[in-house]
Design brief:
Distance between the termini: 68 Å
Helix content: 25-40%
Shape: elongated
Structural class: alpha/beta
Strand content: 25-35%
Order of helices and strands: HEEHEEEEEH
Length: 182
C-alpha cells in the first residue's frame, strides 16, 4: 500500500507541475513576434467598428470582426473595441462595395459568376500622440463567387464571399503590421 501511495503522490506532483507550467500560457491570444511597424511601447490596440461609407448594410461589422480575430490570434497585442486606455487605435473605413457579373450563362439567361470588390482605407494611430504609425491608403480586395444555376436551389453566396474577403483583408493587414510590408 505504501508503494501505491508513493506512485499516486508522484503522479499528482507531475500533474501539478504540468498544470503550473502551462498556466502562464493561458489567455485569449497566441503570442506573436514584435512588429516592425509599431514601437515597443504599443501593448494595447483599439479596433473600433469600421466606418461604412457604402450602402451595404453591416459590411463594416463583418470586416471589423475579422480584423479583431486576426489580431487576437496572430499577435501579442491586447486588442479591444474601446479606445479608452489603448496605446494605438486602428481606424478602418469601407469606401466602396461592388458586385460585378463575371459569367453569364445564355442557356438559362442568368449571371452565374460574380466578383465582389471592396475598397478600404485604414490607419493605425498612436492614442497618446496622434501620430500615424501606419496608413494603407486605398486597398482593394476582390472575391469571386458562383450563383446557383437552379433558382429553386438558390443559396445566397454573397455573404460567405464577404466573410472570405474579410479574412483576406484581416490576414493582409496583420501581416503588414507585423512584417512592415508596404
Amino acid at each position: 500500500m505504501s508503494h501505491r501511495r508513493s506512485v499516486v503522490k508522484q503522479v499528482g506532483i507531475v500533474a501539478i507541475a504540468l498544470l503550473a507550467g502551462t498556466a502562464p500560457g493561458c489567455g485569449y491570444r497566441v503570442a506573436g513576434g514584435a512588429s516592425r511597424v509599431l514601437p515597443p511601447s504599443i501593448h494595447t490596440i483599439a479596433i473600433p467598428t469600421f466606418e461604412n461609407q457604402t450602402q451595404t448594410a453591416r459590411i463594416e461589422q463583418t470586416l471589423t470582426a475579422a480584423v479583431l480575430q486576426e489580431f487576437l490570434t496572430r499577435t501579442r497585442y491586447r486588442v479591444q473595441a474601446s479606445t479608452a486606455s489603448s496605446d494605438a487605435i486602428l481606424k478602418g473605413v469601407v469606401t466602396s462595395v461592388y458586385s460585378s457579373p463575371t459569367v453569364y450563362d445564355p442557356a438559362i439567361n442568368r449571371t452565374t459568376g460574380v466578383l465582389l470588390t471592396v475598397g478600404l482605407r485604414m490607419s493605425l494611430v498612436s492614442a497618446t500622440t496622434g501620430e500615424t504609425l501606419y496608413e494603407t491608403g486605398d486597398w482593394t480586395y476582390r472575391e469571386p463567387y458562383e450563383v446557383s444555376r437552379d433558382p429553386d436551389a438558390y443559396l445566397a453566396e454573397n455573404q460567405p464571399a464577404l466573410e472570405r474577403l474579410s479574412r483576406q483583408v484581416a490576414a493582409s493587414l496583420v501581416s503588414t503590421v507585423l512584417e512592415g510590408l508596404k
